[in-house]
Every structure is written in structure tokens, then in C-alpha cells.
Amino acid sequence: MYPLRVGSGMMERGWLLYGVALRGSKVAEGMKARGFEVFEVDSRGQALFQLLSLRRWIKARDIRLVHCHKSGDLLLGTLLKSLLPLRLLFTEHMGATRPKRDLLHRWIYGKVDLVLSISDETRRRNLKALPLPASRIERLWLGTDLAACDEPAAGIRAELGVAQDALLLGVLGRIGRGKGQRDLLEAFLLLATRHPQLWLLIVGGTSASEGSDETVVAALRQRAAEAGMSERVLFTGFRRDTPRMLRAMDLVAIPSHNEAFGLTVIEAMAAGKAIVGASTGAVPEVLGEAGLLASPTDPAALAAQIERLLGDDELRQQLGLAARERAEREFSMSHHLDELTRRYLA
Fold first, then answer.
1. Which intervals hold domain Glycosyltransferase subfamily 4-like N-terminal (predicted)?
2. Of 64, 159, 162, 211, which is most buried by a Cβ count within 10 Å?
3. C-alpha angle with apex 219: 218 to 220, nearest 5 degrees?
4. Domain 153-330 coded CATH 3.40.50.150
């Protein structure tokens, strides 16, 4: 979804944007809804067979730059650059985990003008794995809309079925192995008896069609039921109103085991929430001093940091203000677009 969010901002700045996407996909439909002209293909392989048609389409529109977001699309970008005077950028959203120094990858990456890594953590992985000099692999943090929801939290809580006097611990994102929801649930259960006002809100799709692991979802529901906590462990399902969900929360946990960046981190920071983040992956880098850290695979460590915040209203407020200030300084969408524009014009 990154090209949709960022592309809309670039068009507002006067850029002309075009898309190449799979026919009928959410990306293709989203691009068209936002005003992109889209070249649609039925498969990635078909795009290669339509290379000459795509070349004519690009040339007719005087497109000068191609920005890829999946490594599987780089072959197409490389072939286009071999046929046209294009600048080729690639945002590596995960960080390469396997070496890509064979002859084919050397040829492909030899055509890439710049790889953008979304964190220092992913840049370290890319420096190790990709056949490129350090000067062609840069870190560019992601950005987010900083507009916070000002709807009264009480109404949102009532809608979700949360008690008004509850202290609401929330977690957002795709539910799956490695995302840490199971570890967080165990941390919650360690605290639940001592803190009867504590509730857990799990925001994220609960089906495979929504991107989540249904086996993990079922295990979470079963564990909460076995502990007699089903009423205090709530699943919202897939939501598009992330700012509203954050508005309802008192504190946020980011327990992902090895996050490449953590868009949910900067969304929670923008909402001015006190955060307990994972001490692994890119979360410490993004959160800085504006939150608490704990090993995401150690429920007792997570519970200890959460309990610090439960018992200290002043600390929660201080960390929330620090998180908001850091988001404004480093992670606004405007700042991200400024930095992206600089790379486009380089």
C-alpha cells in the first residue's frame, strides 16, 4: 500500500504518477481511485511478455523514473531501463535476508541507481546481502499522517465494548507468528489478576483474506478463554480507522520479534501514546528514547514494562508527549516526501 499513500502526496506536489500493477488487485484499484493511470497485467510473467507494449506506453508518457517496491519486480524494471533512459529506484521494505551476489542478481542490481532501506536495521542487512556499494544503499525512514483523532475516547470504547474505567492495552497489525500477539497475551495474563482494570485490545484482521494467520488467531482466542479472560481480551477484526483505535487506548505494545521498520510504531507515536516496544529489529531505532523496551519473546519482561506504565500516570503522559514530538520531528509524511523528492531529483 506504500505507493498509494506516498503517491497521493507526490501528486499533490505536482508530480505525474503512473502505475504498473496486477489487474484487479487492491493496488491497481487503489491507484486508479487516487488518479493514477495504470498499466494492468494479468501476471508478473505476462508483464515480461508485454515488455515492448509497456516500453511504448512509458515512452509516450515521457516517464523518466521507475520506483519498484518488491524484489520480484526488479527484473521488469531492469529490462525497461535497458530499453529506455530511465532512473531506477528500489525501496527494500524488508531487508534482504539471503545473499544476492550471483551473476543474475549482479546484473539486475547493477541497473539499480539507488536502493532505499526503510531503517538502519534493514540497511545493514542490505549492505551484507546486495551486490552494491554502500553509496547506493541509503536509509529512508517511512512517514505517516500526523493528524490525531479528536473523537471522545469514551464513545469509541463503548462501540468496542470496553468498560469506561478500564486501562486499555492495545496492539495493532497483522496477526501472525513473529508479530508477538501470543507473547503479549501471556504478559497480559500475568498482570490480569493484579490489575483487574486492565483490558487487552487486539486490532487486526482475523482471517487469511485479511492477511492474518487463522491458526494464531484461534490459539489466541482459545488461550484467553482457558484463562477466563475472553471478556477482557477483545478482537476488533480488520480496521481502516487506526487513529480511532489508538485514541481508545491508554498504552500500546509493539511486540514484533524482528520488525523491519514498524509503521504501527510511528502511528502510535503520532497518536501520543506511551509505548512498550520490542528490543529487537528496528523498533528501538524508530522509538528512540520515547518509549520502553522489552524482549518480545519474554512475557515476564513485557509484563514488567507494562506494569511500570500502569502504575505511573505521569510516566505514561511523559512518554506519550515524547513520542508525539519525535513523530513530528522525524516521521511526518511531509518530511518523508521531502526526502523522497530529493532522491528522485538527484
1. 41-147
2. 162
3. 90
4. no
**52-58 own/partner pairs: CB under 8 Å, 24+ apart:** 54/20, 54/80, 55/80, 55/83, 55/84, 58/18, 58/84, 58/86
Whether residue 209 has pLDDT greater than 90: no
Number of Cβ within a 10 Å radius of residue 119: 23
How many whole angstroms from its chain centre is CA 139? 15
Q: Which residues, 6 or more positions from 71, have their beta carbon under 8 angstroms from its beta carbon? A: 90, 92, 96
Q: At what angle do helices 333-345 and 2-12 cross, to 10 degrees?
A: 80
Residue 316: what pLDDT? 95
Q: Dig out the grid coordinates for 190 from the structure.
A: 500475568
DSSP 149: P
Location of each CATH 3.40.50.2000 domain in the chain: 2-143+333-345, 153-330
2-143+333-345 has which CATH code? 3.40.50.2000
**CA contacts within 13 A on the Cβ side of 108:** 17
User: d(Cα 93, Cα 118) in Å, to the nearest integer?
Assistant: 6
Measured CA to CA, the distance from residue 108 to residue 126 in angstroms comes to 15
Secondary structure of residue 200 in the 3-state scheme: strand
CA dihedral 325, 328, 331, 333 (to 10 degrees): 160
For residue 275, the surrounding DSSP H or E stretch is strand 274-278
Helix (H, G, I), strand (E, B) or coil at 205: coil
| pLDDT tens-place string over residues 298-336 | 999 999 999 999 989 999 999 999 999 999 999 999 999
CB-based contacts of 137: which residues, under 8 Å, 6+ apart?
A: 114, 115, 117, 123, 126, 127, 130
- Please identify which residue in the block is written with the cell numbers 483487574: 196
CA distance 78 to 169: 46
